[in-house]
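Possible regression after last week's pipeline update?

I re-ran a chain I had predicted before the update to compare outputs. Posting the input and the new output here so someone can diff against the archived version. Not blocking, just want to make sure nothing changed silently.
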Amino acid sequence: MRSLKVLFTVLLAFVAAATISTSAQAAAGKYVALGDSYAVAPGTRTYDDPNAECRRGPLAYPRLWAAQHPSVAFVEASCSGATTTDVINSQIPQLTADTTLVTLQVGGNDVGFVDVLANCILTIDDRDCVNGVELAKQAAQAYLSPALAQTYAAVRAKAPNARVIVIGYPRLYTIRGNCGIFGLSDTERTAMNSAADTLASVMSARAAEAGFEFLDARPVFDPHTLCSGGTAWVTSLEWDKINESYHPNVAGHRDGYLARLNTLTG
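New output (post-update):
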């Protein structure tokens, strides 16, 4: 009889331990990554499938964060080329009520930043580049700002209890840095940096209104921009790999975005 009591006690202990373990796993939460090419693999040159449209890979900061937090369920919804409309239509539906953490990086494609970069690269006249940047900055205020407000509201509706961190874009260049006179002029570099500043201003304002946090990438990346003289965390122009150009590289994802995200989330 005593042996049966001992066996019963042991069984209860196993059941209790299993229950605690299950509860701990449930409490660990769920992380959903939303966004565009900055939230996936362009710039790292390492892809799950280099021919896949979304161009996802293991060295992007959301994947790295998920790998460091294995007890947290992870959903990668981010896709290269995404706009706010794409996020609303294709990515936000992947959020669920039990989502506890969301990172969201979108906005550059809404203002045609890729076209702006291409124009600055290809044009001979600085004024053409500056004019293109100014049009993009106007679009950020007139179009992107309300589009972000709509996107952020949709995120909150689908994930009412989640912590949401809006991820910003870095400046690309150190002005009067060590790049010399070749390539883009400092006038063009300054204009491109000002586009990043406008995006940050719009994104941070809409994020604050939504009750979201804003991860400002500019102070994180500034010591490691192109022409900084230090280790660059963004890729430079590569004519044979245009779609890799001007994206965070392996160090940018790991030492830039991931490190700052870990500071915020633990």
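Follow-up from reviewer: compared with the archived run. The helical segments are 2-28, 61-68, 84-91, 113-122, 126-158, 186-210, 217-221, 250-265. Marking as no regression found.
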